[in-house]
Description:
Distance between the termini: 46 Å
Order of helices and strands: EEEHEHHHEEEEHEHEEEHHEHHHHHHEE
Number of domains: 3
Structural class: alpha/beta
CATH class of the largest domain: Alpha Beta
CATH topology of the largest domain: Rossmann fold
Number of helices: 14
CATH architecture of the largest domain: 3-Layer(aba) Sandwich
Amino acid sequence: MIQIYNSQSRQKEVFKPITKGKVGMYCCGPTVYDYFHIGNARPFIMFDVFRRYLESQGYEVNYVQNFTDVDDKMIERARREGITVKELGERFIAEYFKDAGALGVRPATVHPKATEHMPQMIRLIEGLVDAGIAYEKDGSVYFHTPAFPEYGKLSGQNLEDLDSGARISVDDEKKNPLDFALWKAEKPNEPSWDSPWGRGRPGWHIECSAMSMEYLGAHFDIHCGGQDLLFPHHENEVAQSEGFTGHPFVNYWMHNGFLNIDNAKMSKSLGNFFTVRDILKEYDPEDVRMLLLSAHYRSPLNFSREMMMQAKASLTRLYTARERLLGLEATQKDKAGAKADGQLIQEMEEIQARFTAGMNNDFNTAEAMGALFELVYFINTKLFEHSAMEEIQKATEIFSGMTDIFGILSKKTDEIPAQVQTLASQRAQARKDKNWAQSDALRDQIASLGYVVEDSPQGQKLRKR
């Protein structure tokens, strides 16, 4: 039974999909005017893991992540570079896929672009105007927040308590300072599209409502993004979507916590603002993913050199455990099957159950990661050359299932040739028989083929030299 912390109710709720066996999931994507930064990487990675877990539990997930490819920042950068906004967007969409792919983030089911969904946005805005919730002024259209009595229910803020602070622009065209633009009238030298109110372009908030509804329907399961999007972006999505349909928009709202850099909020003024492209010049992308998985997604997380070193060490332990399982399986192939110990199988299944319990508990990757390392300890202390193949295969199955959900251990281990595996198996038997001379001779033969065999309390390990 999966439980999700719902930002709207501010409590954990049992997950019940609208359609049995299927999940509609919308995650806010990047505005493509630059490489995405390490703070953006956290939701991209975390919600990728949640999608993987839901799929592992048998759900068919329709995962939608948009690209905002028309925006004030895009217009400004395109102007500086002397290129079109479309050219800028295409360049950084391609760069997004490079960096996201390096981090192990799978492509969404669909990646809609804002510029390709103007008819859907215009239709939505028209419906809001017809319903009396939006109004036109000099070619722009605004959502009138007082006309939606439930405004503020997602973020938990009262309309009366909100003001026209730094995040909300005051405009003489508006009836209320909290009203927000659905459509912006055309300005010179900016991209624009035809509409019933004249040429112009959409506001940011309407884009996500239109694109999510297009691919997931007017009522879907999960909407997620960074905590910074809770207000006003997601609040405005709720208002305009429910104002248009008259019924609930999303069942579960999920928001990840902030990422700090060396215990300080990331900002350009502090000189600690890093794009993923910058980070990957120094760190392995899998180490970055490992670090971001180490804390619960709603908790703040610190990114530092020390934390990266810890993540790297943890990942090395996992690779070593995988190599050990491969070695055990290889040396067991030529042996008559030993009888499996039911107690060992049960222990592994109990560890697997703790992993599942962690993920079911609001996708607690830190808790689930603890279970994964329990399994690593089990592999290193309770599985040996004489273990039954059933035990080794069970450990491999559970271990691979966990790491696949986390999207780690993507690097391939060189397959050990059959000849080397046979020699290793013979050497393990020689050591068991205390035939040390034969054991040393077989070690030399293995070495001549370019492989090293190492002895440990847990048995021998094979690796390429």
